[in-house]
Structure formats: structure tokens, C-alpha cells
Amino acid sequence: GQQVMQIPQYQHVQEGEDFTTYCNSSTTLSNIQWYKQRPGGHPVFLIQLVKSGEVKKQKRLTFQFGEAKKNSSLHITATQTTDVGTYFCAGLKAAGNKLTFGGGTRVLVKP
Amino acid sequence: EAQVTQNPRYLITVTGKKLTVTCSQNMNHEYMSWYRQDPGLGLRQIYYSMNVEVTDKGDVPEGYKVSRKEKRNFPLILESPSPNQTSLYFCASSLKRPGLAGGSYEQYFGPGTRLTVT
User: Fold this and answer.
1) Do B50 and A97 touch (CB under 8 A)?
2) What percent of chain A has pLDDT over 70?
3) Mean pLDDT of chain B
4) Which of A75, B38, B76, B84 pairs with A66 at a CA distance of 20 to 30 A?
5) What are φ and ψ of residue A82, in 5° steps?
6) What are the phi and psi torsion angles at B83 (to 5°)?
7) Do residue B109 and residue A104 have CB atoms under 8 angstroms apart?
8) HSE-CB of B21 using CA atoms within 13 angstroms
């Protein structure tokens, strides 16, 4: 079945530094969504990417969808303590009805 | 306030004792889904429903049942819980099924139900 892998599983970042988390699918995706889950909370939608090579920005967050639509990345610049949490990607196969989530990248920020 | 609610939020039970976790949304969403979250495994889909009376298996349906008799409710039933079903469960809903052309049908998650089966 479809698999979605995220790396790294954990990311310790110094406040103010940049980091990137990667999402790779075993199959071509129709679209990909990203979610953020704060500690003790529930996942909250961040963004959806649909087009090959698409890049979208939300303030300090930059999301990219690969040309082959099998991978995606989330880049955060100038990390802040408010960025703490687990970031999940979720991929949808073409003509599919369900999202497959990656294992998540848990981000810890050192002040 | 638009929201997805789940009850109970915490539950400790014993092996074999049937239980139901309720999920309700007030956004008139068509698509609803149940996930379980386990450390290192992310969110795995248990069942989903594209509309009333339409349900389908996700990736880990064994040991679970669902029903969708009304649009707003999507209960998760564990007929005979076992310790390997100890997990954090999330219900989610979206206006339409993910991937439907024309929109980003984001999923709205409930607060979660932490289930322990001893």
C-alpha cells in the first residue's frame, strides 16, 4: 500500500536558525497537505499543495511539492519557540478518498 | 462555534468490554474519518465516511466498527477491545472528501480521546 515517510523524526533547532523537514511518498500523489500538532493538542491544517513544483509561503514557512509529485518539504526560517510541535504531511493518491499521513517530524526549539 | 467534539476524552477500560467513542461535527461536513495516533507511527486512518450511510475501511480497520446514520455523527465502536488498541484517537471532518477538485478540503480534528485497554 501507499507509504509516506517523513525525515527527520526529531529536529532540535536553536532559536533563530532554519530547518527543513522532508516528506517522501512511495507513489505519485494527487495532492499533499501539511498539518501542525502542538504538544497535547490536535492536528491543525496548514496548507495544501496540488501542482507539480508548487511553492507556497506562509510567513516564515515555505512549502514545496516536488516535480514528480512524490515528495514535499517544509522549510522554516528563523525558528521561534512558537514553532514547537509535530509537523505531519499527508498525501492523497490520484482519485483516492483518503489521506495517508507520514510519521511526523517533532520539532524542539532551544532558546 | 464550528467544531468537532469527541467523547469521552479519556477512557480506561478492560479487555473485552465493548465501548463507543462518539464524534460529532456542527459544520455540515460530508466527509468524516477516524485516526489513531501512536508514537513514531503518525496518524493512521481506521475508517472514513464520504456521506451518510457510506463508510469504508482505512489502513487499520481490524477490531473497529463505525456507522454514519446522521451527517453530524460518526461513532467509533470497539466490540471487544484489546490492549493493542491502547492509543490516542482522533475524529476528523472535512466539507468534501480530500482531493476533490476545486478546493483544499482540509480536515478539522477533534480534541482526541486517549484510550487505555488493560
Assistant:
1) yes
2) 97
3) 94
4) B38
5) -70, -10
6) -55, -30
7) no
8) 31
| Chain A residues touching residue B61 (CB < 8 angstroms) | none
Nearest CB among A42, A90, A97 relative to B97 is that of A97
Q: Which chain B residues are within 8 Å of A96, Cβ to Cβ?
A: 98-99
Closest by Cβ to A99, choosing from B41, B98, B112: B98
**DSSP designation for B28:** -
Burial A43-56 (b: 16+ CB within 10 A, else e): bebbbbbbeeebeb
Over range B96-117, report the average pLDDT. 87
Please tell me which residue of chain B has the smallest CA distance to A102.
B42
pLDDT in the model for residue A39: 95
Q: What is the pLDDT of residue A2?
A: 67
pLDDT tens, residue by residue, B50-74? 999 999 999 999 999 999 999 999 9
Beta bridge partners of A72: A23, A65
